[in-house]
Specification:
This protein is an all-alpha fold. It is 76% helix and 0% strand. Helix 3 crosses helix 4, helix 6 packs antiparallel against helix 12 and helix 9 crosses helix 10. It starts with a helix and ends with a helix.
Length: 218
């Protein structure tokens, strides 16, 4: 019998991988139990039901592994006397997100489940996830520190940034073939983050991030 903490984590690891591949509706509790090597009562004890387990898997990624609340919280602690400092913060956030979701040793299901979570859950649960991500912090940051941009423009900008991240998650094989790579490695993800950060700051009329300054923060 696995100890308490190990049982809970084993269920999350098994369920997260299955949910990423098959979705919430396509995954059965008995299938999760078999994969985790535990009992149905353990799932009910730790998570109440399947939807509770699904949400726990996403919280595990967002709060424990990515520390998204902490990442977005850095927006409130920086000094932004110049547009260069604003651009550098954006570069830092892109680097952090890509390495946390796609870096060496990170299970592929993390990123895939993050994307699928927007499609599978009841709207009430989806709203809870949006609060976890706190995307409004990034939009508010841009509106506060980038001159002459409208709320609608920033919304389009934000959606396009997220779409780029999702492409590297969901089209991993296509990207690897395009760049003739066996896997995502740190050097490739760093180059990708630099490219994305330069693109997203250029659209806002900001200077390119100082990649050396960003690297020192990582």
């Amino acid at each position: 019998m696995l100890p308490f903490k190990s049982t809970r984590q084993a269920i999350i690891d098994a369920a997260g991988s299955l949910f990423a591949r098959k979705g919430l509706d396509g995954t059965g509790i008995r299938e999760i139990v078999k994969e985790a090597g535990t009992s149905l009562s353990s799932v009910n004890y730790h998570f109440t039901n399947k939807k509770g387990l699904y949400l726990a898997c996403i919280r595990h990624i967002m709060e424990e592994k990515l520390d998204l609340p902490g990442l977005f919280g850095t927006l409130d602690t920086g000094v932004y006397a110049t547009t260069q400092q604003v651009a550098d913060m954006m570069g830092y956030m892109i680097h952090r997100c890509l390495l946390a979701l796609l870096g060496p040793g990170v299970p592929e299901w993390y990123g895939i489940l993050m994307v699928r979570s927007r499609l599978d859950l009841h709207p009430k649960s989806s709203r809870a996830l949006m609060r976890l991500e706190e995307p409004q912090k990034l939009r508010s940051f841009v509106l506060e520190h980038v001159p002459d941009v409208s709320e609608s423009f920033v919304q389009y900008w934000y959606v396009n940034v997220m779409a780029q991240v999702q492409y590297y998650i969901m089209e991993r094989e296509a990207v690897l073939i395009a760049f003739d790579l066996p896997r995502y490695d740190e050097a490739f993800l760093t180059d990708t983050a630099c490219y994305m950060a330069e693109s997203m700051t250029q659209i806002l009329g900001l200077p390119a991030p100082d990649h050396r300054a960003v690297a020192r923060r990582l």
